[in-house]
Amino acid sequence: MPQSLFIVKRMAALLVAACAITSLRAQSADPRDAPPNEERLLNTTVPDIPLTTVSGARATLSQIAHGRPLLLAFVFTRCSGVCSPFLTSWRSADRAIAHGRYLRLALSFDPRDTSTDMFTLARHHALDDNDDWTFAVGDPSDVRRLADATGFWWAWDETRQQFDHPAMLAGIRDGRLVRLLVGGSITSARLDELVREVSGEFVRSYPLPGRVSFRCVRYDPATGRTTLDWGFALLLIPIAATGIGTLVMFAAGARVRGKE
Q: I need a labelling partner for 176 at 20 to 30 A (CA). Which of 5, 55, 145, 197 fits?
């Protein structure tokens, strides 16, 4: 095998291995190191778990939504961090876009919270008498199943005596996850996009939280298949350049030897 061809093939193999290792590391990384992976969660069926609202009524997730699209946020009432500011920004953005065709659900993931605690939280944000907003609690195992289906996580921080968790909205339509909105503050523009998409409208592509568009592989949640993405093609450019340069160098050397 010509040495130049061997070098090109060796470099290609190394880059493929690097992409594979990067992909495996991303899959096995601690979820707390990155935002929820929306690409792997889209179109996931969410469990229709039973909940208890602040009025004491028992109803499933679909019964609460009553056929409407649903925006879901996981919170807990003893949170001294992002939960209250997050709810405040959500309420403010919601009022700015003035959409009434979807349901807003704030669900506690803290097993200590009661429906009375959630009513107090709703009243604190002046949402206790708004029919478009529901505050609820659920059985811990059911809440965990719903959280897993939407990519939400939490971990107890013994030092702060608080739960560490992301701030996010999960858009759900017809029992499936449509989109995630991750971040401690919600703007009216981002919320409007989320509402329109969860309502079935076309929304142009948007940047994923903590992600870049360059990647070696792409995961399709609808089929469960992983394919090479355009980022992998870009990786071939330096390989091609190196290969061409090597061939040119060997060709030049051959001409020199021929003249001798």
A: 55
Residue found by looking up tokens 């704030």 in the block: 106
Partners of 138 in beta bridges: 51
We report the CATH number of the domain holding residue 128 as: 3.40.30.10
The one-letter code for the residue type at 61 is L
Provide the strand spans (E) within 21-123.
Answer: 50-53, 58-60, 70-75, 103-108
Q: Which residue segment(s) compose the domain that 122 sits in?
A: 35-209
List, in order, residues 6 or more apart from 88 with CB less than 8 Å away: 125
Q: Which neighbouring-strand residues pair with 173?
A: 176
Q: Is residue 190 part of a domain?
A: yes
Contact in structure between 45 and 78 (CB atoms under 8 Å)? no
Question: pTM of the entire structure?
Answer: 0.67
DSSP string, 220-243: ETTTTEEEE-HHHHHHHHHHHHHH
Give strand pairing partners of 192.
Answer: none
> Which parts of the chain have pLDDT scores under 50?
8, 21-31, 33, 210-222, 224, 230-232, 234
In this predicted structure, what is the pLDDT of residue 24?
44
Distance CA(121)–CA(112), nearest Å, equals 14
Measured CA angle at 138 (ends 95, 67), to 5 deg: 50
Count of domains forming the chain: 1
3-class SS of residue 170: strand
* Three-class secondary structure of residue 21 per DSSP: helix
Identify any residues that bridge with 224 across adjacent strands, giving them in sequence order.
none
